[in-house]
């Protein structure tokens, strides 16, 4: 489990790679989705809340952090902009946005 609020490494990696590749990743998934069930199982194993809001919040947290990281990578690498203090200060704001 990454930071008790995210998901296990495999799920975080999968979601992050999808976002880095520009795929549209929905923040909401159904309770019967395999990914949902894996996150729930991991939360139960870690003795963390495993109700639906907690599971979906965990997944959203991973997605938001990956989107923030992608933003910070694309600015200097793709758009040839310096990684300024202004851009770096946006990271916390980007990573905590709620839908």
List low-pLDDT spans.
Answer: none
Measured on Cα atoms, how large is the radius of gyration? Answer: 15 Å
Tally of contiguous helical segments: 4
Total number of beta strands: 0
Helix content: 55-70%
SSE series? HHHH
Name the structural class.
mainly alpha
Main beta sheet strand tally, sense and closure: none
Shape: elongated
Count the domains: 1
What proportion of the residues form beta strands (DSSP E)?
A: under 5%
Mean pLDDT: 82
- Distance separating the two termini: 23 Å
Fold and architecture overview:
Helix 1 crosses helix 3, helix 2 (34-45) crosses helix 3 and helix 3 packs antiparallel against helix 4. The chain is mainly alpha-helical and 99 residues long. The protein has helices at residues 9-20, 34-45, 52-77, 85-95. 17% of the residues are buried. The chain has 4 helices and no strands. The chain starts with 8 loop residues before the first helix and ends with a helix. It has one domain.
What labels would you give this structure?
99 residues, mainly alpha, 4 helices, elongated
């Amino acid at each position: 489990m990454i930071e008790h609020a995210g998901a296990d490494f495999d799920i975080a990696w999968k979601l992050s790679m999808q976002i880095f590749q520009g795929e549209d990743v929905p923040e909401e998934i159904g309770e019967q989705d395999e990914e949902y069930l894996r996150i729930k199982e991991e939360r139960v194993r870690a003795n963390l809340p495993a109700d639906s809001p907690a599971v979906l919040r965990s997944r959203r947290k991973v997605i938001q952090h990956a989107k923030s990281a992608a933003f910070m990578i694309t600015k200097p690498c793709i758009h040839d902009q310096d990684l300024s203090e202004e851009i770096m200060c946006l990271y916390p704001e980007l990573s905590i946005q709620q839908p």
